[in-house]
Amino acid sequence: MRKVYRDAVEALAGLLRDDMVIMSGGFGLCGIPDTLIDAVRASGVKGLTVISNNAGVDGAGLGLLLETRQIRKMISSYVGENKLFAQQYLAGELELEFNPQGTLAERIRAGGAGIPAFFTRTGVGTIIADGKDVREFDGESYVMERGLVADVALVHAWKADAEGNLVYRKTARNFNPMMATAGRVTVAEVEHLVEPGEIEADHVVTPGVYVQRIVHVPDPAKRIEQRTTRPRP
CB 3.0 to 4.6 Å from 164: which of 20, 82, 140, 211, for a disulfide? Predict the structure, then answer.
């Protein structure tokens, strides 16, 4: 099975449609599938439900899809860096499903593991639990959360081989490994593409069985979301 595609547009060909569910890896601007997001924007699909920790920032990452109003709903944990997101949400133009960050990660992991639902104490007694099944276990209350699965998962990896085995680097790992397992089709953009067998088996984070398509993106842009420096002496 050929997994390596010439570019992001080719890698997404035949996968995108209106009103679909997309997972997009990354945390802030770290480890986001920039090139694949650009290809989604160019496709013009709309009415998207996007599962991602946040919605990028204004003018970058998923913020680009907000500019073109291709996103109908976000399932997220943190959206405070994006003014356009706030404007669309407060105007009733964007639906939002907020999640505690750990709950979001576990919902994605559960979806990838074939677990339809699980119980957690996080959110009990708050609006997070409104309308959800709350049960008692060993004298404690727990709220039921549903696992998440996407039509397509878009992830960013540091290294891959042609069989789709993925390796991530440092904090750019974030949500990418869980999302790679939770997409019905997973498309990975990778910085370094090597031959099968060049990656040590113990170094593989996402086995190639989870990855259907790969696009090689050497030297991707790596923006700094919040630059913090000390004043010069």
Answer: 211
Q: What is the rounded distance in angstroms from the CA atom of residue 93 to the CA atom of residue 72?
A: 8
Domain of 212, CATH number, reads: 3.40.1080.10
pTM: 0.94
* Residue 229, domain member (yes or no): no
pLDDT single digits (tens) 53-88: 999 888 899 999 999 999 999 999 988 788 999 999
Q: Is 220 exposed, middle or buried (0-12, 13-18, 19+ CB in 10 A)?
A: middle
- Residues 17-30 have pLDDT tens digits of 999 999 999 998 99
Q: For residue 188, with 0-12 CB atoms within 10 Å meaning exposed, 13-18 middle and 19 or more buried, which class applies?
A: buried
Q: What is the 3-state secondary structure (H, E, C) of 193-226?
A: EECCCCCCHHHCCECHHHCCEEEECCCCCCCCCC
What local confidence, expressed as pLDDT, does residue 1 receive?
Answer: 66
Q: What is the span of the domain harbouring residue 84?
A: 4-117+147-216
In this structure, what DSSP letter does residue 57 have?
Answer: B
Report which DSSP code applies to 54. S
Q: Give CA–CA dist 52/49, Å, rounded.
A: 10
**Distance separating alpha carbons of residues 152 and 216, to the nearest angstrom:** 18
Instruction: Look at residue 130 and tell me if it is in a domain.
Output: no
Span 111-148, pLDDT tens digits: 999 999 999 999 999 999 999 999 999 999 999 999 99
Beta carbons within 8 Å of 48's beta carbon, 6+ residues apart: 18, 19, 20, 21, 22, 40, 65, 70, 71, 72, 73
- The 3-state DSSP class for residue 96 equals strand
